[in-house]
Design goal:
Elements: E1 6-7, E2 10-13, E3 18-23, E4 25-26, E5 31-32, E6 38-45, E7 55-58, E8 64-66, E9 74-79, H1 81-84, E10 94-104, E11 109-121
Length: 128
Amino acid sequence: MFSSHAVINLEGWEGATFYQEFTWETGDPAEPVDLTDVTARMQVRADVADDDPVFDLTTENGGIIILSPATDGKYAILITPTQTLGICPDHEKRSLVYDLFFDHGTDNDTGMQQRGKFTFNPAVTRAE
């Protein structure tokens, strides 16, 4: 199975870039997982039962980045300031949920890589 099921809570700020890098390693001793030919998809929702995602991130739209070289097992999540602008209605902290799946096209395997809470903090400084 091509997954790790890691629980990783994330934190971002309204109107700011969210960028965080990760390394997927497995085994003893830990070795990086080869992410060659892997695509990824991640959705963030207010609640797991909600129909519409707040963010829909993929390797295709640039929200999930497989870092080079792919054999190092490194990837990143990117959400732009335009996407996070206004994410905190009434300037209140917002708690969301997410999960991220990897699709390994060469052996038709899909698995959950990570999941958790995604908290966004309201910004005091805002664009005019």
